[in-house]
Amino acid sequence: MTTPPSNHDPSDDIEAARGLDERAGSSRMTDPLRNPRSGGSVTRTKRAWLLLILTTVIPGSAQLVAGNRKVGRVALTVTLCVWALIVLLLLTWLVHRAWVIELVTGRFISLVLVIVLIALAIFWALLFFDTLRLIRPVLLAKGMRPAVIIGFVVLLFVTAGGVGYSAYLVNVGRGAVSGIFAQGPKMKPVDGRYNFLLMGGDAGDDRVGRRPDSMTVFSVDAKTGQAVTISLPRNMQNAQFAKDSPLWDVYPDGYNCGDECILNALYPDVANDHKDLYPHSKDPGAEAMKDAAEGITGLPIQSYVLVDMDGFSKLIDAMGGIDINVGGRVPIGGGHDEMTGEQNPIDGYIEPGKQHLDGFHALWYGRSREGASDYDREARQRCVQSAMLKQLDPQTVLTRFQDISEAGQKIIETDIPENQLSSFVDLGLKAKDHDLIQYGMAPPYFPEEFPTYPDYDEFRSSVDKVISDSKDGKTPEPQAAGEAGGGKTPVASVNPLVMAQVLGLSDQSQATDDAGTTKSLDVQQAAELTENGTCSVP
Q: What's the CATH fold of domain 193-477+531-536?
């Protein structure tokens, strides 16, 4: 006679074997946490999930209650030390956050942080595998084994994997900081302010060298973070230089070699013909632009940041592309070759409507000159930059961090010292408490012809007043529309407001008009645009 089948788990009837070091009736023998055989299938399942949760929340506690207590004590000590360090860093952030930023961004400390994170990730993973050993999946009911194993894998991936990925991000960011920023001592504020020049450069195949299409001086209060931007038109004539500038000997009366000697032509001029004036500089053209900005504004320019439009295509590809509402048909190609003077062919068009642009098409959308005014072209560039800023969300950054980091190193060039980063980030956080004050040598502050026939003494005096008034939060008053050339102004190819957001110097956003077209919150009035220049960010 055969025994009928039963759903009863035979392992439930197995009694624990007494160890050599255990007395009969020892609590260890009957404690289901330390001896899963002493409990039923439901108890073993609850025990499995409890041990996994303990290892997730308090690493080492599972070993303390169900395994090797020595290992558990060591792991718990490490866990408590990590928690104490995090609390200490949070308290330090509240008291002096620059110290915390310097710890994270410093070359040596960031390397130590990478090593510590890797060690913690490995240690946490080993604790999880030890927890799996303590669970003893073979004793679980068959239906629960897959669920517990899947839970183990998910929690291992989220915890130890997350810490390991953090080490990877810190290491990539460490390389990016070293690749972008310069070496050298920290800068000290001059008259209580940091002053640096932001340039947006373009070096297309049809151009003679790289030229900065926009130049903006940032002046930041070293204590409060209050930032003032001063836009310098690219077509400014007769740029001035201080007597201690190497360019004083070449252009003692200013950069006045004719109509072609506008401000943005100084960069390729020095890079090609006068690089010997700056023998210790990696970028003589940028140094020359700093000297020109200093002579024009009267502010001591301590460093520069150059954003290369040509590298934007790589960054946009690294982001996975950008979305833009295109207002009018924009040619790919066209215009004239500056080297040959011949007409460039048109290879296609970017059509109106919502478009997802890869790096190649986004670059052409911002660069195309065919059938467009400077206002149209520069407005399109602002749309590209705004789209990048909007779509560079945390998910994109985390999943494409290495590609974005590598592309960023090709786009941004600066002589800001690496060890200055912590103080600048701290200033950027302070700056969010203030409105960004904007000014420039163009309408609505000066007549439209002022950059062609500038009065530099008048301009420098006005800059001094704007800087002085900024301490009280005062913004400069624009001239009447008739006096300032009808309110038109060249639109910066790198919008100062957008770049201020990237640099952390403003949290102002951009508004849209009734038609959905992006409007900068810049106090300068927008120039009239054709369909070629109208666009918005969806």
A: Aminopeptidase (3.40.630)
